[in-house]
Each structure stands twice: as C-alpha cells, then as structure tokens.
C-alpha cells in the first residue's frame, strides 16, 4: 500500500453521497479511485464531486466487480442497499480489500455465516461502520461502566426511534430500498445503532455473548395512514399492504444473565431518540433525559427530579471518554455530531497499519443476525429463537 489509501465506494444514494462529500473526500490521505452505483447518474454525480476535490476523475461503473478488480485499491466502502451488503463484503474480502460496510440487518443467518467464513478463509478485515459506537454519550457511559460507576450491569435498552414515514413513503420516487422492506418484511430491520453500543457495554463477543431472543411486532397502521394523507387514498401505494409492524420489541438474553431490550419505532409520529439505557447494581444512565442516577449520591425519596434531569454534564470532566476529550480539543468534524468522522478515522487507521478493525466480522454477524432472527420469532408469535455463536467459542477468551 502506498502513502495514500486508495478507496472504492459502492452505493451512492443519500448515505453514500453524504459519506463521500462530508467525510471521505476531506480525509487528507484517502484517495477515491472508483465509485459505483446501480444507477449511472448517481455514479456520475459522485465522480463530479471527486474530480472537484481531487483534481481528477475516478473510475465510474454500475458493476461493483469492476471496482474490486482494480489492483491498487486498498479498501472498499459499502453504502449500497441492505440486501447487497453481505455479498459485496464477501466479494471484497475475497479480492483482498479491507471492508467498511454501512449498517443494516441481515436477511438470513446463513449469509452471516458466509461472511464469517469469508473472513476466516481470507483473513481480510471487515468492519461494520456503526457510528453510534463512537457517540459522545455512548463512549462516556462505556467509560463509566469500565470504572465500575454503575456496578454490575444487569440490563440495557435502546432503540431506533426515528420517524421515517416520509423517506419510506417516497421510496419509489427517491429510489430508496427501505420501502420494499416495509412492504414485504416484519422484523427488527435496523438493530445495530442500539446493539453496537450495548454490545460494548456488555462485552459481547469478548467474554460474553447473546444467546437467544424473543420478538413481537405491533400492527402496521402508521405508515398506511401517512401514505393516504400525503399521496391520496386512491394512490397505488395506499392500496398496498404494509407488513412491517409500527413498533417492534425484541428482548435478548445474554450468556451471563443480562437482558437487552431493543425497539424499532419508525412509522409513527415521534421525536428522534436512540433510548440508550444502562442499568446496574449501583446506578443507571438514561439517554431519554440525559440523566445519571447513582446509588448513595442521589436519594430516590428526595431526588429533585426536575432539577436533576440532564445532569449528565456534571459527570463530563471525570468520565468523558479520552477519545472525545482529544476530539473536542482538535475540533469536531463530519456528520451525525462527529460520530461519522471517528468511525471512518478508525477504519482507515486500521487499513494504514494493516491491523484488525475495532469492530470486526464477528461483531458484524452477531449484530446483523438480529434482523433475520426477529423475523422468525415474530412469525411464530414471539417464540424464542437461539442466536448463533459466530465465534465458535472464541468469545470466552477474546
């Protein structure tokens, strides 16, 4: 590998184009050598941005295998549709390229095993770009957990609480893949924003693992009502049945007895939240009101709730994660409050040093499989489903 990291970007919809223009093209030692999208116009628009930033035009194609065939490319960034992530990641590893895959859920447990087997065969690292693992609150709470502030962790919760009715309803017009998923599937389709940070807190795949889950979905009414209001009752989409339940609740059991509750909530009117919650024997953290409650410090009978909501700032000086202390000093960059820059900085640092990525293929498989397993559980009325051990026992000593 030369001094500059040569990168190919596959998938240039809203997320891919945002990553290209806000993050990747602003990284000084990263060079975009090729761009690819199934829609030719997206690829050309991306190439225009690359040419403007780098002074020359990258390879442009609608066939991702042509990107993988470029010998000098070191790394592949996958921001295509959910269903394409696994196949492109596997092909990239087989081509000897480091993989950065955007988030999403798996469609089958078998494809998760294929991903793991591809890594074990090629030894080429593959990283899920779960930016929420790099959030300031999530990392501060992780730091507090490691310092024993909350005692022994018993339960964690989180969710993807994001009103996406507009994005989903106009999926055909915007050539966005989410719409087809909501028409045909009923599952926890986007689990990793919450599972990622929780997995770090609970040591998942590093001394602990998720062993089983149960999942239930509410009826699907919110999206159809929105479509009828915005597109008219006689529109084709208004007459289409939506499979995806408005609220999906999944409960996961871990090997050491902890429980995790995650919630998908994307088709009813609401404010944005990831609902990150950590409960331990000595205290708790709740994202919903940015509050920390410590046994002995806060008296449950005399706690001034109104005055203490949002008291997280009082813990910053002592527990803010070192990564964020340095980041704030140097200047926060990129999208999603700076998380995007940090996750890509970590990925490209691994490529540069030819080391393992901080989120690895076992994490990716474990987190993504929740979608496929929740789909099975919901279809069987909330029946418990076993979660595979993608490490084949290595989680005990990793």
UniProtKB/TrEMBL annotation:
Domain of life of the native organism: Bacteria
Record has Hydrolase as a keyword: yes
Occurrences of domain Gfo/Idh/MocA-like oxidoreductase N-terminal (ranges): 5-128
Domain Glycosyl hydrolase 109 C-terminal: 139-305
Keyword annotations of the record: Glycosidase, Hydrolase, NAD
InterPro entries: Gfo/Idh/MocA-like_OxRdtase_N (IPR000683), Gfo/Idh/MocA_oxidrdct_glycsds (IPR050463), Glyco_hydro_109_C (IPR049303), NAD(P)-bd_dom_sf (IPR036291)
Keyword NAD on entry: yes
Pfam families: GFO_IDH_MocA, Glyco_hydro_109_C
Cofactor: NAD(+)
PANTHER family registered for this protein in UniProt: BCDNA.GH03377, GLYCOSYL HYDROLASE FAMILY 109 PROTEIN
Family indicated by similarity: Belongs to the Gfo/Idh/MocA family. Glycosyl hydrolase 109 subfamily.
Name listed for the protein in its UniProt record: Gfo/Idh/MocA family oxidoreductase
Taxonomic lineage of the native organism: Bacteria, Bacillati, Bacillota, Bacilli, Bacillales
């Amino acid at each position: 590998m030369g001094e500059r990291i040569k990168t190919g970007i596959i998938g240039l919809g809203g997320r891919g184009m945002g990553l290209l223009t806000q993050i990747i093209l602003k990284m000084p030692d990263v060079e975009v050598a090729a761009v690819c999208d199934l829609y030719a116009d997206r690829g050309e628009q991306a190439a225009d941005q690359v040419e403007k930033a780098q002074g020359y035009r990258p390879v442009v194609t609608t066939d991702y295998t042509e990107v993988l065939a470029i010998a000098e490319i070191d790394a592949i960034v996958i921001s295509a549709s959910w269903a394409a992530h696994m196949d492109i990641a596997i092909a990239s590893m087989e081509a000897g390229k480091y993989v950065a895959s955007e988030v999403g859920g798996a469609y089958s447990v078998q494809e998760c095993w294929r991903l793991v087997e591809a890594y074990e065969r090629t030894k080429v690292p593959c990283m899920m770009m779960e930016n929420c693992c790099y959030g300031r609150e999530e990392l501060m709470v992780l730091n507090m957990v490691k310092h024993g502030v909350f005692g022994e962790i018993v339960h964690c919760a989180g969710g993807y609480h994001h009103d996406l009715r507009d994005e989903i309803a106009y999926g055909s017009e915007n050539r966005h893949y989410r719409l087809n998923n909501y028409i045909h599937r009923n599952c926890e389709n986007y689990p990793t924003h919450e599972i990622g940070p929780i997995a770090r807190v609970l040591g998942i795949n590093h001394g602990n693992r998720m062993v089983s889950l149960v999942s239930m979905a509410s009826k699907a009414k919110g999206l159809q009502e929105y479509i009828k209001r915005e597109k008219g009752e006689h529109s084709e989409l208004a007459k289409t049945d939506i499979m995806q339940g408005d609220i999906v609740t999944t409960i996961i059991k871990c090997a050491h007895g902890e429980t995790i509750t995650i919630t998908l909530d994307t088709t009813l009117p609401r404010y944005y939240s990831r609902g990150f919650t950590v409960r331990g024997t000595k205290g708790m953290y709740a994202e919903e009101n940015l509050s920390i409650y410590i046994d002995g410090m806060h008296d449950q009978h005399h706690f001034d709730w109104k005055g203490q909501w949002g008291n997280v700032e009082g813990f910053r000086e002592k527990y803010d994660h070192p990564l964020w202390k340095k980041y704030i000093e140097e200047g926060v960059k990129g999208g999603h409050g700076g998380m995007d820059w940090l996750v890509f900085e970590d990925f490209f640092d691994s490529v540069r040093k030819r080391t393992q990525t901080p989120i690895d293929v076992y994490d990716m498989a474990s987190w993504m499989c929740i979608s496929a397993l929740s789909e099975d559980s919901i279809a069987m009325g909330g029946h418990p489903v076993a979660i595979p051990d993608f490490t084949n026992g290595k989680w005990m000593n990793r």
